[in-house]
Amino acid sequence: MTTPTSLTRIKVKNVLYLTDFSEPSEAALPYAAAIAREFGGKLYALHVLTPQPYVYSTPETTVTAMEAQEEAAQEGMERAGAHLAGLVHETIIENELGVWPAVERAIKELKIDMIVVGTHGRSGIERLLLGSVAEEIFRRSPVPVLTIGPWAAAAVHNGAKFHRIVFATDFTKASLAAAPYAIALAQENQSRLTLLHVMKERSRKDGDKFGAISVADAMHSLLEIVPPEAELWCRPEAAVQYGNPPEKILEAAKDRGADLIVLGVRSATGHLGAATHVERATAHNVVAHAQCPVLTVRG
After folding, report:
1. Are 127 and 266 in contact (CB under 8 A)?
2. Going from the N-terminus, what domains does the chain have, and what CATH number goes with each?
3. Where are the alpha helices (DSSP H) in the chain?
4. Hey, which of 51-60, 119-128, 192-201 has the most confident mean pLDDT?
5. pTM for the predicted model, two decimal places
């Protein structure tokens, strides 16, 4: 039985936008700016300079290469800043051995409420912005992460207004951690909210023993997620489907014209091979192939 979710008022005072100045990063910038404007917050644009291997370099040429890297970063930040006119913002360039330590420090010191990042995803999720760092960020971040995948990059960001939201869950604690954000954003935007649970396909050998929850139970549990005091303009839609979780989540979002998918993810405790609430591949594939932004919340 699912415990009704308590209402959470979304407050986004400080937005952290991560960039490596690539096209995916540039595609994510309008979303970051729109969210900061919508919530009256401040935008921090962060670029992390990590050590680069300089093969066959002398000390002199290495210094020259590093200086060129820093100069390019400064120019990139100036271009990003030009798109943020009229918005309270700050650009930051950090030198660090890895991206996550700089992000973690920024979250704490700048009191970040949300992170926005773009991804590549050309061959599945294996090629994310900053390599595998994007996944590390949304699994380790204590604050929600809005990821703009390659298929979502061409979509209109609607000024950070999300009118059709799909929240997917398998009722684990990790997945339900994202429910308050899905409900609060639906309430904030008076959105249509779809609550989705995906079951694996039945097989003959499973027989009547398949699954610990029936479709009727799943539908009931989905509707219980939304507290009765939630001021939504329409009744949330509960949907239960059989099949491959990422495929069905993407299909449900596409069929409903969703402009936001919300997922809970398990923390990357130990290593990034740890499963999410619907296995690691789900978050990978949804983020890489979604035609809208994906908001992940660590459970």
Report:
1. no
2. 14-298 (3.40.50.12370)
3. 23-38, 59-82, 99-109, 133-140, 173-176, 179-189, 215-224, 245-255, 280-289
4. 192-201
5. 0.85
